[in-house]
Each structure stands twice: as C-alpha cells, then as structure tokens.
Amino acid sequence: MQKNNSPASPGRKSPPIALTIAGSDSGGGAGIQADLRTFAAFGVHGLSAITAVTAQNTLGVDAVHRLPAPMLGAQLQAVFADFRIGAVKIGMLASANLARETARVLHAHPRVPVVLDPVLIATTGAALAREDLVESMRRHLFARADLLTPNIPEAQTLIGHRIRDRDGMHAAAATLLEHGARAVLLKGGHLHGGEVADLLLTREGEHWFHQRRIRGESHGTGCSLAAAIAAGLACGHALEAAVEQAIGFVHAALAAGYRPGRGRLRVLDHLGAR
C-alpha cells in the first residue's frame, strides 16, 4: 500500500483549555484523574500540574509524596508559556510552599479565572495537607480565586467553628468573603436531610441550589465539581451559570456512578453524565 505523505490536516478548531493544579489519585476516583475526565466530558482540553502523588485506593490513603515547589513551578511555567488557558482549578496543594508557588505563578496571569477547592482531608479521613496550609491559602490564594468551593468540614477548618444548619452556612460563607474570597460556593452535603443545598454567596447576592441526596459514600465529588465549574468558565459561561451546570453534572455523574474497588467508595461516571 502506498504511504500518504501529504501534510497533516489542520483539523478542527482547538477547544477551550483548562488547567488543574492538584494531586494524583492512584485509585482514579479524585484529584488530577477526576479533573481531566471532567474536562473531557465538557469538551475542554485539560492541562495538569501535579502537586503531590498519593498511594490510595477505595480503602484509604497509604502514602503522600509532595513534589518540590520548583517542580510545580516548572510545570506551571511550561503550560502558561504554550497554551491559552481559559480557567484554572486548584485542588490538593498539600503544603504552604506549594500554595505560595501556585500564587506566585498565578500572580503573573491575573485575568485567568481561578476556582479554588480547599482540599484538606480525603473522603476516608486521611489528612492531605500540612497544618500551615490553611493560613497560606488565606494569605496568598483567597483574593486570587474567583470562587472558593469548600464543603462543610473544610469551611469549619477555615473559619474555626462548627456549621450546624443553613443559617450557619450563610454566616460561614460571609466570613470567608470577609477573609478575602471573591465568591464562595459552600457545599451542604455534610448536613443531614434528604435534600442537599449548596450556597453560592457573592458580594452582589446569594443563590441556593437544591438537589436530591444520593445515598452512599462518594469519592471525587468535590474535585469534579470544582473542575466542572472551571470548565464552564473556560467555555465563557458566567459564574452562576457555570456553577448551576456543574452541580447538575456532578449529580448526574454520581447517579451513574459505581464501586470499582473493594471499598465502599462510589466514584463518578464522568463521561456517562453528559
């Protein structure tokens, strides 16, 4: 058969591009792996900068190796030098040094939307961050992030007191705005009830999102939600529209989810949700 030596076709127009800055989950349910699948589900080209490598599965986290800050910086410089990045999702940072390095690079790109998911503890309860990370995030990243997306336990750590109900959620989100966040999506899944309520609070107002609770212990929902919001922003959607679309996506992906390992954790079917 004669070989085709003609130049390659230029192909279709490049899709929107989003970057995830997060840890690697060897079990494939959260972190970089979940973020890239989420980007793919939205038709977004995914870039990644890895902060840490974890040895984990559906049973738990066995080990965490944090990358040196210069290596994270090199990854970030490489992707910003080549790609037109439409949005950034920040997940597991693991240490204050990595948070500062992330903030240093992002400072040079002030117009790129940033979604900050303050990952502190794994679903299984394992600590994924050093104690000084919270203060470093407050000081260096809150004001840079267009949206902060804590769950109830993460918000409690960030503000220093318990959240018991929806009034407490509103007060906590307002406190996070006072600490410098531009907007807060406080996820209410850890409160009891058959319905899950998430609060989007900005300096202009508030919006509550409600969805039916899906029973069972899930893994990767927070990562996927923040990544889906970043994907929406990369596609040019306004913040509230990106949040609403992302919440619906995660709910559908969780409803279609499955248990891939011997543990109880249910992971999302990202591609089956679109």
UniProtKB/TrEMBL annotation:
- EC category name: transferase
**Pathway assigned in UniProt:** Cofactor biosynthesis; thiamine diphosphate biosynthesis
Q: Name one GO molecular function term.
A: hydroxymethylpyrimidine kinase activity
The UniProt annotation puts the region (Disordered) at 1-20
InterPro entries, A to Z: HMP/HMP-P_kinase_dom, PM/HMP-P_kinase-1, Ribokinase-like
List UniProt keywords, sorted A-Z. Kinase, Transferase
Metal-binding recorded as keyword: no
The region annotated as signal peptide is none
UniProt xrefs under NCBIfam families: HMP-P_kinase (TIGR00097)
The protein in question is named: hydroxymethylpyrimidine kinase
This chain is encoded by the gene named thiD
